[in-house]
Amino acid sequence: VYVQINKAAEDEHIKELAKDFFRKLEDHDEQTLSLWQQFRDFSIEEYIRIYKRLGVRFDEYSGESLYQEKSQEVLKMLEDKGLLQKTVQGTGVVDLSEKKDLSSFSTVMRSDGTSLYITRQVTQPVLNLAAAVDRMNKHQCDTMIYVTDKSQSSHFEHLFQMLKLMGYDWAERCQHVSFGLVQGMKTRRGEVVFLEDVLNEVRARVLQNMASAKTTKQVEDPMDTAEKVGLSALIIQDFRGLLSSDYQFSWDRALQSRGDTGVFLQYTHARLCSLEQMHGNEQLTDCNVACLQEPEAISVLQHLLRYDEVLYRSSQDLQPKHIVSYLLTLSHLAAVAHRTLPVKGSPPELAQARLCLFQAARSVLASGMKLLGITPVAQM
Length: 380
Fold this sequence. Notes:
Blueprint: H1 2-8, H2 12-26, H3 30-53, H4 68-80, E1 84-86, E2 92-95, E3 105-109, H5 129-139, E4 144-149, H6 153-165, E5 174-179, E6 182-183, H7 195-212, H8 222-239, E7 247-248, H9 251-254, H10 262-278, H11 295-304, H12 307-317, H13 321-340, H14 348-371
Parallel strand pairs: 4-5, 6-7
Antiparallel strand pairs: 1-2, 2-3
């Protein structure tokens, strides 16, 4: 619909009709508002349903409608502080240049008097001054993080600059986390890619792989397992690099069971779960770590010690790639240790120490996966 309406808007008559409709919305026309409310309700219903599959839940849906009246307060505030300037065309702008020569500015009001994105619209990806002030007053945030695609970067620079000009010191605590484009993602339904189609397709592909793999165990709910494994494949492919980098999507690469993939993380976790089950799922707290002398065991131990450092780094720059890289390395190290350090048949003290090591590896692997929005599976 969005693509179609943008094509239609090339017609000047259609463009005028759209402006009239927008003006009616701002004037609280009953029929127009009723139609808008229906669209909004349908949209939120769908957001809740689809995001639930990703394990994502929102506490608030504060769309642009919430800030319609407050945007006028913001315009008045800009005016009172002498920040609002009128151009020859009649548009309202805020000068953001150092020399105050309008070499950098933000347009905040159209010439017809209706407010623009920056002062009103808060639906993603464009958020605004009125929303920022309201949210900070309401939530008293330590940090306010905006997550949108990187094409919005200059918009957020302007937004934070204007908040500072308006005298809000907390603008320093606002941060934009930008993400890049996913290239080459196509589903069987064609060029336009819907999230639901992608989720359904990755689940179907994992189910197919599970059915044809010789090592697949009988799982209670294959569909649920395929959903979790498929999601982990998508998330790891998305989070492996810098968030702001564009990347080429590949179904084959994402779904490899051997390699740096979400499927490999799940496979490693399931194997470690299986090992624990074989030995009674007992939580070990007392073991002689000095028994673990082999290089493979020491490599796993040393890597486990780095977990808090990796979490701290990710918390500082808000990049999940550090956690992804750490978990993939842990999985490879654990896989090697699993092959070379048998628990069964080893002397009791050594067996206990090795089992304790594998439990620790599985626990950290599960913890890191959950942080990335992945649900670890015990069987696959």
